[in-house]
Write a structure and sequence with these properties.
Blueprint: E1 2-10, H1 14-22, H2 27-30, E2 34-42, E3 46-53, E4 61-70, E5 75-82, E6 85-98, E7 101-112, H3 115-144
Length: 145
């Protein structure tokens, strides 16, 4: 399983950033490869959702995940349920630093069932991870400023 951890400082409040990441229904508006989100079940502390992604060189894929969220600790975790991967887990943690500055910690673990897909994903992981963080920051700048 491949694991990566990224930390960035963002000029917005942690709770506001947490709310943007938790608003999964809006992902198709600003995450380039996300074309559709289907909320299957939503409760006060968790939801189950499908994310449909379109990568340019591959057919559309559906990822089903359980999303567990805690607005007090500002943590969002996803647990992979079904799709083209063997495993996928993420953790977002939002920490206030100053009045309008936060640290965002993003942890990702993934494993494809197919060895070739795994190696390809590992090769492009820095680009995908960077684009994802960039998309969230841009969304925060556009909606919060």
């Amino acid at each position: 399983m491949k694991e990566t951890n990224k930390e960035i400082i963002v000029n917005h409040k942690a709770l506001e950033l947490y709310s943007i990441v938790l608003d999964v229904e809006k992902y198709p508006d600003y995450i380039p490869w996300c074309t559709k989100i289907e909320i299957l079940v939503k409760g006060k502390k968790q939801m189950k959702a499908n994310m449909i992604v379109d990568y340019k060189l591959f057919p559309s894929q559906k990822f089903t995940s359980k999303v567990i969220f805690d607005s007090k600790s500002l943590i969002i975790k996803t647990k992979y349920i079904e799709g083209p991967l063997k495993n996928l887990n993420t953790i977002w943690n939002f920490i206030d630093l100053k009045k309008n500055q936060s640290k965002v910690v993003f942890n990702l673990e993934f494993e494809f069932s197919n060895y070739f897909h795994q190696k390809l994903a590992e090769l492009f992981l820095p680009l995908i991870e960077s684009k994802m963080m960039e998309s969230f920051i841009q969304r925060a700048d556009e909606t919060l400023d």
